[in-house]
Structure formats: C-alpha cells, structure tokens
Amino acid sequence: MAYDVEKVREDFPILQRRVGQYPLAYLDSANTSQKPRQVVEAMERHYLEHNANVARAMHLLGAEATEAFEGARGKVAGFVKAARPEEIVFTKNASEALNLAANTLASRLGPGDEVVISVMEHHSNIVPWQLVCERTGATLRWFDITDDGRLDLEKAERESLINERTKVVSLTCVSNVLGTRNPIADIAAKAHAVGAVMVVDASQAVPHQASDVTALGADLVAFTGHKMVGPTGIGILWGRYDLLAELPPFLGGGEMIEIVEMERSTYAAPPHRFEAGTPPIAQAVGLGAAVDYLNGLGMEAVEAHEHELTAYALDKMASIDGLRILGPTEAVDRGSAISFNLAGVHPHDVMQVLDSRGVAIRGGHHCARPLHKRLGAQSSTRASSYLYTTTGEIDALADALVFTRDYFAPRF
C-alpha cells in the first residue's frame, strides 16, 4: 500500500494545533520527534495499571513491570537486528550512551594511543572523548570534511588518520546538521584492520531508516528514544556481547552487581552491569510502543517517504535567492535534516519570524560548534522532517523563508 501520511498524522494530535492564524508545521524532528497516541497511551496504562519496580519486586505488579521492561529490550533488539536482547543497554539518552562507551573504553587507552572522531560530530560525541583523552594521555584526532559536507576520506588517507596507534574510532552515522550519511561500514573495516573499536552515533539514523547494527560493522552503537516517536528519558547503547562482557562498569549501585562485600564487589553480566539503580521503566514501555508503531509503518516506507520529502525540500530551497544550504544539496547519501543560512539574516531572527508563521524550526549551532566554525558559519537554521511531514509543510517553510528574506533583506 502507498504511504498515507495524512492517515499517519491522525495519530499525532499535536499536529492539529494552530499558531495564531497558521497551522503548525513542525519541522524540528531532528531535535525531538512528536509522539503518537499509541506511545502516550502505553505509558499511561503502565502507570495506571502495572506500575512497580523491576527485577526486585516479587509480587504480581513487579513481575508485570519486569516483563514489560525486558520485553521492550527485546523489541529494540529486534528493531536494530541485534544478535540477542542482552546486547541492548538502556541509558537515559544517547549522550549517556556515548559517555558510557567513552568511559568504559578508557580502560584500554594510554599515552601514545589515538582516538579518531570527525569535525561534524555532535558535542555528545566530542566532549566525552576529549575528557577521556585528557585523563588517559591518549591523543584525539579527527576527520576533516570537504566543501560539500562529506568526510574528507582522501585527506584522512594521506595523513594516515587511522593507523596502528588508533584504539577507538567514533563517528556519527548521519550528521544532525548537514544530513550527510557517512560510509560507516567502510570506515569500520579500516578500524578493525588495525584492532580499533568502532563506535557509532546513530541518533539521526535509527529513527529514519531500517537498521542492522551487525551489517553496519560497528562494535557499539548509540541512539535515543525521543527522536524515534518514543519518550524522552531513555537512550540505547547496543554493543557486541563479547565486547560488553569485557568492559568495566560505568556507574555503581543496585542491580549492576553480582555480590557486594565491604572489601570488593563483583558485577552482573551485560546488560545489567551498565544499568545501575532503578531504570527508566515507563520510558522503556513507551519506547517499546514506539518500536511497535514504527514496525507497523515499515521502516522502508518511512525512509522512502523522507527521501521524497528531502528531495522536494532541497529543490524548493535551492530556488530561494540568498539562501545557502550547508552540506549536500542533493538527496543522495543524506538524511532529512537541512541546515541553511539566509544572507544578512541571523538564524535566530529566521527562527523567530518562521515561528510567528507557524513553522517550527531550530536556529543555532545545533550542538555542533566545531562544524560551524569549519564551515565559516557562526550558526545556522535547520529544518528537519519526519514520517508525519507533508509537502504542504515544506511549501509553508519555503513561503515563510521568502517572507523573512524580503522583510530583512529586500534587495533580493
């Protein structure tokens, strides 16, 4: 059946809102996605009918809560084609998942070792590695980008960026600013050839495309619930089980232990080794419902819908005089986030004027300041579509941008 976006939108009551005289055009899904009724109702049912702590409450409600929590783990494992549910670690967000990866892999780093990232990373995939390198004496290096917003693989090859000193490579799968989709499997192969661990930030990938973490070639993959029609407060770190079993704990507390003595403790097997304390139970229930929802739509259909919208939006925006798109200008090997600047207009002004016309976008550096500096841009404006976005909303974006440009810079 054809993808029926209007039918999909019926599941998202917030999309029926108006901003003054204008219908809401929500184009900030790279920031956070909207939530369908099915997710909200699943969390409501949990709190009203099944609420209890997991793993430790030996009564009916505790058993129901544990079953729902671990059931969500299984759903997420299936969604990304993990080998087993125990490869899924729940965190509070993708940032914590990446910090977990950095801090546990730090046990393998020392002076002379190198960690490789890229200049296009979200701060969550820069700062944890900076901190770890400062602590261990390892050296942080990074991929540069080309003028069209792709990883500069030729420069990396000339500089032997990935070499025998490389212990970790950590890259975004899809840039949250440029939309660039990176060749992760190829880079993972190079990392593994020198014995390095491959970490991937898939926060802008898993919500938008069919995902197979094994085929990706990664060892650890981070993503988050709130960008995939799920709730805030829950993130995911997938890891190869044999690697997780070798890594030390990240946080200490209840449930991550095996035996506690005053002198020392032993630790639980993955994933619970990395889930200290009471976990995000209702959030996991909501995430499980989000996975059910996405599976019901079909991720291939979602990806095709977004690809069509992205091509449409890029064409529309390319026709606006004075507008510069950052990153790839064609819908080839790119996601749906489109960052841009209007000549002579600050991104915050663009964002404010568009908001007054019902178009919700984001202005700033999108937690990617080094990337903006590399591009010679102080900041940018970003429009990002998702599975509920329509071509009519893209038209509203284009119309509002022309209005904004003419208001601030009538010379165009």
From TrEMBL:
Residues 26-397 form the Aminotransferase class V domain. Keywords: Pyridoxal phosphate, Transferase. Its cofactor is pyridoxal 5'-phosphate. It catalyses: (sulfur carrier)-H + L-cysteine = (sulfur carrier)-SH + L-alanine. One of its GO terms (molecular function) is cysteine desulfurase activity. GO terms for biological process: cysteine metabolic process. Belongs to the class-V pyridoxal-phosphate-dependent aminotransferase family. Csd subfamily. This is cysteine desulfurase.
